[in-house]
Specification:
With 137 residues, the protein is mainly β. It has 2 domains: 45 residues; 69 residues, OB fold (Dihydrolipoamide Acetyltransferase, E2P). The strands form 2 sheets. A 5-stranded antiparallel sheet has the order 6-5-4-7-8, with no helix packed on it. A 3-stranded antiparallel sheet has the order 2-1-3. The longest helix is centred in the first third of the chain and has 10 residues. The chain is globular. Bound molecules: zinc ion (ZN). Zinc ion (ZN) binds next to loops.
């Protein structure tokens, strides 16, 4: 098997994880052909099929578009349950899934709430309610 026959990707899945875990950056792609912005790693545009996507840094703020409360967590989150598993539409485009450690009940979060990505030593993309904790930006 050779890699030369495969289309090249701007970054690997491992790079993506390293991005948000170590560099506090959510990496994404913009299609130079149709302009689609996506957080989903891929070799070609999901909309028009063009390869050679441009790597970009996605926005760190976004809007909750879906969420659920997880009471039975994975191994890495045993001490955090219950917490929210969220789908966030980022400013500027791209949709990512993440988790919110301080949301313990469906009353604590609403669709449309603004949230902000913050780096975490835990696996996964952690969001907090925008304006809550830490320094802004
Ligand atoms: Zn495209």
């Amino acid at each position: 098997m050779t890699t030369e026959e495969l289309p090249s990707a701007p970054h690997t899945i491992l790079d993506w994880f390293r991005g948000y875990e170590e560099e506090a950056t959510l990496r994404g792609f913009r299609c130079p052909n149709c302009g689609l912005v996506t957080a989903t790693w891929g070799l070609a545009c999901a909309r028009c099929g063009k390869a050679d996507l441009t790597e970009i840094a996605l926005g760190k703020q976004g809007t909750v578009v879906a969420f659920t409360i997880l009471a039975v967590p994975g191994e890495d989150f045993l001490n955090d349950a219950p917490y929210a598993y969220v789908v966030v539409e980022l400013e500027g485009g791209g949709r990512v899934t993440g988790w919110m450690p301080t949301i313990r009940d469906t009353d604590h979060l609403s669709i449309g709430d603004t949230v902000r990505f913050v780096p975490s030593y835990k696996p996964g993309v952690q969001f907090v309610r925008d304006g809550a904790g830490g320094s802004p930006g």
